[in-house]
Specification:
- There is one protein chain.
- Helices cover about 25% and strands about 25% of the residues.
- The chain is an alpha+beta fold and about 290 residues long.
- A hairpin with a 2-residue loop joins strand 9 and strand 10.
- The radius of gyration is 23 Å and the shape is globular.
Length: about 290
């Protein structure tokens, strides 16, 4: 894979136009374009090209139930890719577009499943004969089913999942937004990140990585030792971490081990004091 740097800052208008044209050509040909965003970076590809969308999932280690956002150049394009647009959505789009507003709509067939990931609403639509009723959207749904139809529903939705999902989709992954050095793990930066709240769908809390840190202390904590308390050190900087639901890591990670960690940066409030604390997402022993 060849990487090319396209500079659009401090260049002439002609050079900027040429760089943007080149980026557009790369996307049209099924390639990826990385670009800076308000937070870290973004990856762009042709949303109507299943192979191009798959490259984003692979490059970012993105789980299949985390759909991509399709960007459009004008409101009219919504009707080309969405099967229906409710009146409430139309009013919101007219009010806030152009702007950073994401709307969740049912897609047309021109948008491949590879772009939207495993679509729960599509899965339930496929199984509607076994259901009393259902509703929701791509990543959250609810249903009512007769007790007598549960077995057939389970069989049908599993069959659908087998047809749609690949082996790669079933491998748990952690999407790292940005590697950090230990010098960036500060209370000041944790407070800056909190300004991006509220976090949720389409505004996920960033996940960072620290490499080659040493374990000072590690212990399971909480009821049934379900959680993990970890203290790490690198270049004489000590950092406290907590891993919810990660208590079993204490069985194979030990004091003195060198590890890589994936985490979210948080603020710990205790007895009137504030300190930076890392919320662990994964640990990998070197």
């Amino acid at each position: 894979m060849e990487t090319e740097l396209l500079n659009i800052e401090k260049v002439s208008p002609e050079e900027k136009a040429a760089a943007l044209k080149k980026a557009g050509e790369i996307i049209r040909e099924g390639g990826l374009v990385a670009f800076p965003t308000e937070t870290v970076y973004g990856l762009g590809a042709d949303a109507l090209n299943a192979e191009a969308s798959a490259k984003i999932y692979a490059a970012k280690g993105r789980p299949s139930d985390n759909p991509l956002i399709v960007h459009i150049h004008d409101v009219d394009q919504v009707y080309e890719i969405a099967s229906e647009v409710p009146e409430a959505a139309k009013k919101v789009m007219e009010k806030f577009w152009p702007g950073p507003l994401t709307v969740i709509l049912n897609k047309k067939s021109c948008v491949p499943d590879g772009t939207t990931g495993f679509n729960l609403f599509d899965a339930l639509t496929h199984c509607e004969k076994q259901l009393i009723d259902f509703g929701g959207h791509a990543v959250a749904a609810g249903l009512n089913v007769n007790m007598s139809d549960i077995d057939s529903f389970i069989k049908e939705i599993n069959k659908y999942a087998d047809e749609v999902l690949t082996e790669q989709d079933m491998i748990p992954t952690v999407d790292i937004d940005c590697p950090l050095s230990e010098r960036s793990v500060t209370l000041e930066n944790a407070k800056l990140l909190s300004k991006l709240e509220p976090f949720g769908m389409n505004n996920e809390k960033p996940v960072f990585a620290l490499a080659h840190v040493q374990v000072m202390n590690i212990a399971p904590v909480g009821a049934d030792n379900k959680h993990l308390r970890l203290r790490i050190v690198k270049n004489n900087q000590t950092i406290n971490c907590i891993g919810f639901g990660m208590g079993e890591f204490a069985e194979f990670i030990h004091q003195g081990d060198t590890v890589n960690i994936a985490f979210q940066m948080d603020i710990n409030h205790y007895q009137g004091n504030e300190t930076v604390q890392l919320i662990l997402k994964d640990i990998k022993r070197k």
